[in-house]
Description:
globular, 7-stranded mixed β-sheet, alpha/beta, Aspartate Aminotransferase, domain 2, Aspartate Aminotransferase, domain 1
Amino acid sequence: xxxxxxxxxxxxxxxxxxxxxxxxxxxxxxxxxxxxxxxxxxxxxxxxxxxxxxxxxxxxxxxxxxxxxxxxxxxxxxxxxxxxxxxxxxxxxxxxxxxxxxxxxxxxxxxxxxxxxxxxxxxxxxxxxxxxxxxxxxxxxxxxxxxxxxxxxxxxxxxxxxxxxxxxxxxxxxxxxxxxxxxxxxxxxxxxxxxxxxxxxxxxxxxxxxxxxxxxxxxxxxxxxxxxxxxxxxxxxxxxxxxxxxxxxxxxxxxxxxxxxxxxxxxxxxxxxxxxxxxxxxxxxxxxxxxxxxxxxxxxxxxxxxxxxxxxxxxxxxxxxxxxxxxxxxxxxxxxxxxxxxxxxxxxxxxxxxxxxxxxxxxxxxxxxxxxx
Length: 373
């Protein structure tokens, strides 16, 4: 199977597997225990936290380890909203967010009565700071926005929004899941109060991620129990996955520029090979080269995906977190409208630095063969 679904998850690096295996065989202490084995485990957690903090250029005390980006998003949104209702009742986000943000704010609306604004992009798919500015209100307490869209790769103006909120009371949450380990991610530079990511998007293990938080803000914990994570998130730490997260992130940072350039070339090479086919890109301004959303007029994407799968190619039609449903892409619907035929003719090809030009060649040949029959 040739894998082009890296926006959904990425394969573990060999060095990550080695580091985790060594940890599994030699470190079983509880990081909260005071004996030698516990202190050894606690040191591993501290080292992992310092690795993430160094990557983000923030103090290590401002990192909460979570089970992934979905939990991190929930922690930021629910935790802050419930703790700050005295400041206002309005939450602002975009219509193209990941389900872990969209469904969380829907929950806050349905369960607690928060007023939610879902901001759609312009008619051409572009997303400008003015769209957020137009909907800001005095009672807005939280703005949540992804850095890069998981279905199209579109880069949103996160730094500009951060600047817009400097003199506003709203806390600012940025979902950095699709950019972490691929480009420099520094919460302080973009004015983010919360920033979330998951290890499995940069060749680390599934089931572990983190949330950066501004220590000057008050927010409730979601998981109660022990005093782990500075009393922000109870539960014995996922020690071996933290080892994998740290190793994967270190490796990504060491090779960031080289990896990015390689993926850019893979993206351009595939587009060049497909020039003879009638297709268009669902691309709405500056985008990450790691995600390429292609559409083939009058071709059902479910059928196309199935044929490619049977031929040995793993791609998708959108977010992995909506896989198995019959709903069209909410991202494309926000641009084209719910009745557009464009919602059923796209596929998502997502690269990582582990992909090769030979794999792209084979994929392009297979795709052309299928579409020309």
